[in-house]
Amino acid sequence: MKSLCAMVVTLKMSIKTPYKAATTIVILILWPMVVVALEWSPQLRKATNPESRSPTEAITITLPVLVNTQVYNTLAFELDNIDITAVMKRVPEGATYKPLQRLSAGMHNLRLVEYADDGSIHERGSWQIEVRDSALFQAIDYQIDSNLTVSQRILDKNLGTPDPKALSAQGAAQVQARFSNPNWQLNAGTDLVYNSESTQTFNDKELDVGEYLVTWNNRDTHLNFGHHGISASNLVIDNFYRRGLSARTRINVANSTATGFFMRAEEVSGTQQGIGDPDNTVAGGIWESQPFTKNPEHLYLSATYLSGKSARVSESVAVIPASRKGESWSLVADSAIYNQQLRLRVEYAESVNDVITEDTTDIDIINGKGSASSLLMTYSPNSTDPNDTFFWNTGIEFNDVSTLFSSLSNPNLPNDKTLQRLFLNANWSNLTAQFLVAKETDNVDNDISFPEFKTLQYQASVNFSPSVMLSNSEDESGEGGESGEGGDKNSDGNSAEEKNNSELGNNSEPGSSKSTAHIMNSIFGFLGQPSFGFQLVSSSEDLVKEGAIAIGGFKTTTHVGLFSVAFFKENWNWSWGTSVTQQDDAFNEINNSTTWAHDLKTNFALSSKFNITSDIQIQKTSFDVGGSDSDTTSLGLTIDYLFSSTVSGLISLNQLHSRSDITGSTDTWTAQTQVLWNWIEPGNTKPGFDVAMSGNYQNTESSTVSIANNETYLVTLSITMIMPVSSGRKM
After folding, report:
1. More confident residue, 586 or 506
2. Higher pLDDT, 587 or 128
3. Among 25, 112, 487, 570, which residue's beta carbon has the most beta carbons within 10 A?
4. In this structure, how many other beta carbons lie within 10 angstroms of the beta carbon of residue 272?
5. Do 87 and 97 touch, CB atoms closer than 8 A?
6. What does the alpha-carbon distance between residue 672 and residue 295 come to, in Å, rounded to a whole number?
7. Exposed (0-12), middle (13-18) or buried (19+): which is 235, by Cβ within 10 Å?
């Protein structure tokens, strides 16, 4: 810049005096243009908060006063690589951008580029802009979905005693919020439930909290407070979802994670009981490791320990009310090798528990020790041929749970069981098949006071969904299908029928009008895309050893066969299912029975506004001894109709007939109808309203028990308010 000034001064001194004034005027005119073209720099105006900007705050770039309109028209403004020049507003101090919608929280790139007339490109400025919702949090997002329905009973009969209120209200709300910074995130959510009939609520409160959860996490640590599950599946912990507190953190040693938790032993909801009940808590920890970082699937190790106390025992363990306390632990090793084709998982667990029942005559368990183990091995060959359509996998499983083994965080685990299972799954093109053989025995500890039962189960299922080329009725009749002498030809010179036969793998000679593919297309073109299913299940339970108290012979077998077929077309579909169940008792033949069940479902979309659904179910049971038979028939019909874009109607009719040689017959007719008006569509922070009138009718008639005869009906008018409120960003 200094050299340029020197050149100008020298030039002015060398010019003769008569031309000095004129030269000076020209230089004064061209000088700003030269300066602007060669060197100038824009400035980003500071935000209201010097450290960050709000999502809707205007962004202003100040330009030198010498940047005229001609130069300004060569400028391009980019925000996150998106051209925003068209929405930039020229102002005296430069240019400003008012976001059309909230900018997402985080860092944004702003760039100013000049495209000169000579084709050169100059980057005049580049800035990093941080957008924050507040000084404390980079991003604050929230979402509230609420609804409230107020219903007024208009007509009613025989609703029971006490008579419910004529005017009632029910509502619910789901509230979620997220607070985040670059290195961490906080999430909070809860459910609110309202019912004006407090006697129908779980805690006898009109308004209560359902479930809630608060989580905090960064790259390595995750904290949970509220209702959540522990992400572990073993003999000690499985599907354990309770209210409580847990923490999970990553540890660099051997690619490991550690989890600690303090949870309720029983399921609770609402504001009752809180978390810290000392008589109903489970506390423990889990260590997980995958030491091979490059191939973590090669080895997974976990160790679990917990200790707890519960004032109640699950009914699956004991019917008599009881309290339990104790501890349990588990070790797991899981490995997948040979490109994850072979998997081997082993586990061993132990527990020590005290179980004290309220029955003083019962024998309590003190320091009861139990163990459990499991083994799973599967093989799944992975084909590298892209044209291969055959896939299969097989495996064996062994589980052994002793009589006294139990865990408060796996209450549904059956104890005193030994299970052996062999399975095979296969998939070939559109055919899938599953096969299973299992054996289960009890009295694991061979206690002479307990009997021993053996259960065998065999299961096979096959599903087939062939890919057929559905033909239109016009093509079936041949109308419009001719093209010269040879009929419709494809580009390869083959007729459409020959091409279909080839694609379906049909081996009949070309030109055969009675080919299998043509027959299949003709049949399925009318019925629809088919899907077939077949399943067989056989199980037997046998008393192989009596205990101290003889219970006599015991052997039952159950055989179940199921066949189903479904067809799908564009505007309608239907399905048919038939099953037969045979139950035999070798020592009490009066229980031997055979049950047939049939189910036919149809769905017709007669138009975009008119839809009809029907369901027919028939079941009949015959007993081998005594001739006592029973049967049940159910007929259902539902009609949906859209009167307009905002008004819809529904009517549903059902008739149930049940008959037994012992109890006689009973007929029940039910009807439901509703007209719904979507009065006002909801929007963000804008309530929407639906108005509905609904009716229910039921009539029961019994041929033998007159007291069972009853007729009830109810007609209500309701209005529902739907209110969504959100920050406008995805949660």
Report:
1. 586
2. 128
3. 112
4. 11
5. yes
6. 59
7. buried
One-letter amino acid at 333 equals A
Q: Are 107 and 129 in contact (CB under 8 A)?
A: yes
- Is residue 160 left, alpha or beta, with left meaning phi > 0 and alpha meaning psi from -120 to 50? left
For residue 713, how many other CB atoms are within 10 A of its CB? 15
pLDDT band per the 50, 70, 90 thresholds, residue 1: very low
- Tokens, residue 551: 């219970």
- By residue count, the chain amounts to 731
DSSP, res 489: B
Q: Which amino acid, residue 10?
A: T
Is the pTM higher than 0.85? no
pLDDT at residue number 566? 95
Decide if pLDDT at 14 tops 50: no
Q: What percentage of the chain's residues is helix, strand, coil (to nearest 5)?
A: 10, 55, 35
Name 622's Cβ contacts closer than 8 Å, sequence gap at least 6. 593, 594, 595, 629
- Looking at residues 448-472, what average pLDDT do you find? 83
Strand 342-357 relative to strand 106-115: parallel, antiparallel, unpaired? unpaired
Cβ-contact 299, 381 below 8 angstroms: no
In terms of Cα–Cα distance, which of 241, 242, 259, 240 is closest to 250?
A: 259
Q: Which two tokens stand for residue 529?
A: 């895309």
Order of all β-strands in the sheet with 82-83 = 82-83, 75-79, 106-115, 121-131
Compute the mean pLDDT over every residue in the chain, rounded to the nearest whole number. Answer: 84
The C-alpha atoms of residue 618 and residue 84 are separated, in whole angstroms, by 67
Q: Kindly state the helix (H) or strand (E) to which residue 49 belongs, with its residue range.
A: none
- Nearest-5° angle of CA 329, CA 298, CA 423? 75
Burial 4-20 (b: 16+ CB within 10 A, else e): eeeeeeeeeeeeeeeee
Instruction: Return the percentage of the chain with pLDDT > 90, whole number.
Output: 55
Distance CA 346, CA 191 (A): 40
In the numeric block, which tokens belong to residue 553?
């012979």
Q: Which residue in this structure is represented by tokens 């925000």?
A: 79
Measured in degrees and rounded to the nearest 5, phi and psi for residue 499 equal -65, -40
Phi-psi region of 182 (alpha: psi -120 to 50; beta: other; left: phi over 0): alpha
Dihedral, CA of residue 251, residue 252, residue 257 and residue 258, to nearest 10:
-30
Classify 7 as helix, strand or coil. helix
Contact (CB, 8 A) for 412 and 239: yes
Q: Is a pLDDT exceeding 90 seen at residue 401?
A: yes
Residue with the two structure tokens 């000679």: 509
Tell me if 451 sits within 8 A of 543, measured CB to CB: yes
**CA 396 – CA 375 distance, rounded (Å):** 8
CB atoms within 10 A of CB 116: 11
Give phi and psi for 707, each to the nearest 5.
-65, -20
- What type of residue sits at position 81? N
> Are 397 and 421 a contacting pair, CB within 8 Å?
yes
Which residue has better confidence, 725 or 449? Answer: 725
pLDDT digits (tens, 9 = 90+) for 699-713: 999 887 776 688 999
CB-CB contact of 623 with 631 (8 Å): no
In the numeric block, which tokens belong to residue 453?
């039962």
CA distance 675 to 647: 7
Residue bearing tokens 């008569």: 18
What count of Cα atoms within 13 Å lies in the side-chain half-sphere of residue 319?
Answer: 0
Condensed to tens digits (0 to 9), the pLDDT of residues 134-150 reads 888 889 999 999 999 99
Strands (E), 444-592: 452-464, 529-545, 555-568, 572-585
User: Is the separation of the CB atoms in 379 and 393 below 8 Å?
Assistant: yes
